[in-house]
Amino acid sequence: MDNSSSSGSSSGSQPERLPEAAPQDRPGRQPAARPFAEPSEGDLRASDADRERVAAALRDAYAEGRLDVEEHSQRLDAAYAAKTLGELVPLTRDLPAHEQVRPRAAPSASAPEPLPVSGPGDNEVVAIFGGAVRKGRFRTGRFMRARAIFGGITIDLSEAVFDGPELVIEVSAIFGGVEVKVPDHVSLHGGGAGIFGGFDVREEEGTEPNGPVVTIRGKAVFGGVSARQRRHAS
Prior knowledge:
By secondary structure, the protein is of the alpha/beta class. It has helices at about 5-10, 50-65, 70-80, 85-90, 100, and strands spanning about 125-130, 130-135, 145-150, 150-155, 165-175, 175-185, 185-195, 200, 215-220, 225-230. Helix 2 packs parallel to helix 4.
């Protein structure tokens, strides 16, 4: 008589129990999130609006004489090349506008603040039966218009503060003339139509690879338009 089954049931051994699943491995439970270090404010990525605010402050500082041409150019290049907020902070640290433009992490997404722009009269030069000159330190904006009707206009950008990588000047000379002068660090491009007149833009690259670009376009009717780089005396 086989007593194996009865002996197995009568033994005091208990059936082997599987190991209990760890709490994080139980179905329906998510693993606990691992803590990580929050990025510092300076490590956050800079937005286009952050870069533009700092660039505008640098242009104002140059226009006020707080920065020379070389300092302004170097800091402006650094502002547009900045990847993080921390890279922008040192560019205005020694300027009065630092606290107003110092980039800070925004608590929520918001529309970028518009840049300050010049009024319409500042971006348009008109000469009718007369003459007009635009020169000295002024903010160019990104678009200018020059209209000479039986008159003459001179636009000298040698000391101007550029508000962006490109300035477009639209000219119209009717029985008149428009002359544009740009500094040698600025590239000059463009062209237009001469109708019984002349439209002469000498296209030249600036001495600064990342310097501003001035683009001339428009027409000359019984008049003349000329644009040249203004070389510094050696």
